[in-house]
Amino acid sequence: MALFETRGLTKRFLGVTAVDGVDLAVEAGELVSLIGPNGSGKTTLFNCVTGYLAPDGGRVLFRGQDVTGAAPHRIARLGVGRTFQLVSVFPRLSALENLLTFLQQHQEERFFGRLLRAPGVRRLEAAAVERARSLLDSVGLGARERAPAGTLSYGQRKLLAFAAALMPDPELLLLDEPAAAVNPTMIEQMKAQIRALHRAGKTVLLVEHNMDVVMDISQRVVVLDHGQKIAEGPPEAVRRDPKVIEAYFGR
Amino acid sequence: MRGVRWVAGGAALIAVPWLVAAVLPGQQRYILHVLVFTALFGALALSYDLVVGHVGSLSLAHPAFFGVGAYGAALLATEARWPFAAALAAGLVLAGLAALVVGVPMFRLTEHSFAMGTLGLALVTQIVATNWVDFTRGPLCVTGIPKPQVGDFRITTLPGFYWMGLATLGLVALLYHGLTTFRLGRAFHAVRDNETLASSAAIDPLRYRMLAFTIAGALAGGVGALYASYVGVLCPGELSVSLSVNLLVMLFLGGVGSLRGVVVGAAAFTALPEVLRMAPTWRMVIYGLLLLVIVIRVPDGLEGVLQRRTGRRRGPAPGA
Known about the structure:
Chain A is of the alpha/beta class. Chain A has ten helices and ten strands.
């Protein structure tokens, strides 16, 4: 059974079919890239499977469980992490607090335990701080843990958002253009991070425009055009596929 | 050292009635009256800031919850002869329930429409208080509201009310601190800063907004009940929209999202017009100008000035 699956997923905006009956299956431990020209429906698909948009048709399955149309926080709670195309952090929280925010809901949600800072909650918090510090170090932001996230540079915020998505150790991670608008050094760093995740056995679905990144790290590539899946396979085969070349460069 | 300062500060606050009596015996009643108002409005402003400053929703419905608590407790105490503690608890619970019930539809509205919707709620509440004469006595006001009494312990003197106000402010401040720091505070601030991102962190934005809104409503109702019992008379005018405006001025004057800032703002807002009575004709003009200067010169409120003076800026300023 695939870890994550969409069956006939469809989303329309005012008569435009942005995602058109897409079947997609990702096995546990796979690193899959989703590519396609601008407007081909990649981000819409991401938003449908993470609960930000309600699909008009089809189903979304996570570990065989139907999560179609569930609210974003519920899907996140199941172990699906995601990042956003436009860099997204909590600007007035510190870098460390940004990361802590991503773990606490997975640890406990008892109101009085939190209000009264029960010893059990304090222990969870201490463990969370430790994990957050090691993740900040791994993306090179260890020295900036107290800085408000809004004061970090664009690239640093992107790394922070990436590290934050890793906080709850998600089973499936959806990355929306992690290498966009990032300098070449940072791209290498991002690639290394994603590879490390893959080696650690995590499942990653990546939307990316940077073909070097896609061809370099993906096991499998899925191509969307006008909301439809037009090709799927290993990077080398997809790169040579005439339908893909046509979608990108025209006939 | 911090512990010593807290004890000393607390002792000084408790000793205020005697200090005032020693220094300004002729003015004691007046000064204590202003201080009771300061404490009660400080508590009310803190409850309001839970919604405005910490989950970032500009609610204008606070007078409605204040009114539900004040009218609920006052009518139960006068008409149904409920004891004070029961009437106070009822005021708190009724206002909390009101917030819970109206919160769900209100939070379906975003930003400006949320402000408009909650403003409508405040207006409707005042209209009900004014026109449902059989129930609220309308413009004739609820009169003869009994003073606080629990068993044989009664609050009748001004120093007594001062300590009641101080205790109320202290309790609300403690709850405010517990709610707005640590994990709960982080979840509130995440919802305020970026709702979309918060839900990707498994935080349910509606749940946290409702939590803040309901607790704020209940606290406003409790303060309303105490206010009614202190003043003894409750009129529909107390629930007017100008209460929202006053609360907003306290918040922005002091520093949105900051415990110390909001208390300082409430104190400045309540005390300043009184101090300016020395220049009766120009009082409100001077007052308005002062507010303008503060808002233009220090947009993060008096809390920003305090932080810069002491040179301590701990973490990001949680201002609006």
